[in-house]
Amino acid sequence: MTPQQEAAAELFDNRMQEATGYTLEQYERVRAVGPTSLAHVQLYGRLVDESGAVEAIEKWAAEDRKSNAGRKPHIPFRALLILHLMHTDAGSNRYHDVAKTLFARLTPETFTYLGITVTDGTQQEWYIRYWRSLNRLLALTSPWDVPRNTFLSAEAYRRALDTYNQERRDRMDELMNRLLHASVRRLPAAIRETYRGNIALDATLIPITGRPNPRVTNLDRERFNLDAMSGPYTRDGNHQGKGKRKDEAGWEAETVVTVPNAPGQSDSFPVLTTGITLHVPGKIKHAPLIVVKFHAQLFDERGYLMVDRAYNGLKPHRFQNPTRMMGFRNLYNFKYQKKATSGKQGAIEDAILVDGCLYVKWMPEALINASIDFKARRIDEDTYNARLAARTPYRLKEHGRPDHEGRQRFTYPDVSKLMCLDPATGKPVKPRLTSGSITLHPDSRESMTIIKNLQAHEFRSKKWTEWYHLRSHVEGNNRYVKDDAHANLGAADKRRPRGYAFQALAVGAAVAVSNMRRIVTFLTDAAKQVLTTKQLRARRRRDEHGNRLEHPSTATQLQM
Q1: What one-character-per-residue DSSP string does 108-172 give?
Q2: Angle, alpha carbons 549-550-554 (nearest 5°)
Q3: Virtual torsion, Cα 216, 217, 220, 225, nearest 10 deg
Q4: pLDDT digit string (tens) for 67-85?
Q5: Which of 60, 206, 262, 396 gives the lowest tally of CB atoms within 10 Å of its CB?
């Protein structure tokens, strides 16, 4: 290898060591060898230990424990999480698969590492032991007390709704995010330091087996799915189905992901899931802010936040204003009805909001209504783009980002240099501004109306288009996690156990292992710019006979 390749190879080895504890060749071998290897089990055990999830679960169990009586679990919480991650990564996480591992694939060393003291039993006995132990964990994190082996009548469904426990739902959110945060923290420090704070947000269907239920708000209908609290999903509109045959049964996972540092720089930062929660399809009232807050636990950097049209439809105190106060610069898309009569989205002092940006209120009506005229096909696309560009001189200039109370200052353009029209008559006027600037503060209805759709760049401008298109990374990441070549979350048959808690745990585990894969892929792709595939996998140290040597830290770990 050339000196440049030698340096790249050494950097790649060091970064793989930092992320996984192994060189690429050893990492692939350890993942592939299976649970008969202690190193294989430790690969997932270290992730669980780093997450702090076990300590949190044990705390919850102590809080809910009424006495020390009762059957003692055969499989401790730590072992459950390790087994869950390990089998999720292997693509075989059914109870039967885990029972087979416990029955025939573990060694005395791996049993000891997992903390499982009873090591004998038939495969059926291990199935029952795993089922009981896992359900002990799920009971701590299930928001509803609801049977999962019978179809609920309308009356039983109403009773189940009354058992809702927000604390247990918060526990599952914490558990999922502890696991995926542990995977994100494996990102090498040198790469972590390059992050600019850009994120994208979206929800994706997590399908389950069986017929879809009626809407969750329909209290007079029996449930058609054994997962009684799941909802119907439709690909149309806001995704809230009605329980029709063509709808799909399932949950939605709300996800936030890191995106590249700038448009056109896809290799500048890996796409990793940094926040997640599970909810009924279409019910996004609280979930978006929840996942952004989980992201903020990992990263202090604040950049752009890209979302689709569903999210600026939320009430601003639930999403738009809190994320602005956190320091994000939001980017939105808009949907206009064909019958809309005005492009104004709000007004405050001498300014109006149009397509998410503040302009002086004397801007010509043709420019104000450009988007609705284009939607109604009253103008062609060239005319539309020309009118969008003509708005720029009328735009107010933002100064800095909102402070911790949500206040942000904007200055008006020099209206004496603009063609200004009276909003009432449409006749030319020479307006006088009441002030040279405006400070937007979320303390009034008119301000919150502005904040609801306020965004960082002019709609469909070059900057808006370049940055907003980075939102596709969250959709790509959701497809990645659901693809059968990766975590296979899209296969409902792989997740037959019913209930919110199991589905959420399955999603959390899948996202955690997917993050690890994406980190390794990112490091590998970066190294491939200099090294060949063979050079990536080669052990670069040889003994006096020419035999390749293990990387020192890898050899130490494999001897453990």
Answers
A1: HHHHHHHT-------HHHHHHHHHHHHHHHHHHS-SS---SSSPPPHHHHHHHHTT--HHHHHHH
A2: 165
A3: -10
A4: 777 778 899 999 999 999 9
A5: 262
Cβ-based neighbours of 100, under 8 Å, separated by 6 or more: 123
The sheet with strand 437-440 has its strands ordered as 397-399, 408-411, 437-440
Residue type (1 letter), 29:
R
Kind and range of the H or E run holding 63: helix 53-64
Looking only at Cα atoms, what is the longest distance across the chain?
92
At 273, which helix (H) or strand (E)?
A: strand 273-279
Spatial separation of the C-alpha atoms in residues 292 and 248, rounded to whole Å: 27
Q: Write down the mean pLDDT value for the chain.
A: 93
Task: Using alpha carbons, select from 514, 478, 485, 537 the residue that is nearest to residue 12.
Answer: 537
State the pLDDT confidence band at 288, using cuts at 50, 70 and 90.
Answer: very high
Query: Which of the four pLDDT bands, split at 50, 70 and 90, describes residue 542?
Result: very low
DSSP reduced 3-state for 90: helix
Burial 258-273 (b: 16+ CB within 10 A, else e): bbbbbbeeeeebbbbb
Tokens of 516: 């690890």
Q: Which H/E stretch holds residue 358?
A: strand 357-360
In angstroms, the Cα distances linking 244 to 152, 215, 231, 457, 462 are 18, 10, 11, 40, 42
Alpha helices by DSSP H, listed for 252-376, are 287-298, 320-326, 365-368, 370-375
Q: Give per-residue pLDDT as tens, 517-527.
A: 999 999 999 99
Parallel, antiparallel, or unpaired for β 304-306 and 199-207? Answer: parallel
To the question of pTM greater than 0.85 for the whole model, the response is yes
* Residue 384 burial (10 A CB sphere; 0-12, 13-18, 19+): middle
Tokens of 155: 């009356």
Tell me the pLDDT tens digit for each residue of 217-263. Answer: 999 999 999 999 999 999 988 899 999 989 999 999 999 999 999 99
Least confident of 83-87, 497-501, 555-559: 555-559
Question: Read out DSSP for 11-39?
Answer: HHHHHHHHHHSS-HHHHHHHHHH-TTSHH
**What pLDDT, on the 0 to 100 scale, is given for residue 147?**
94
- 8 A C-beta contact, residue 477 and residue 273: yes
- The C-alpha angle 141, 171, 275, rounded to 5 degrees, equals 120
From 394, 390, 439, 385, select the one nearest 414 (Cα to Cα). Answer: 394
First to last CA, the chain: 33
Of 152, 276, 172, the residue nearest 216 (C-alpha):
152
> pLDDT tens for residues 176-223?
999 999 999 999 999 999 999 999 999 999 999 999 999 999 999 999
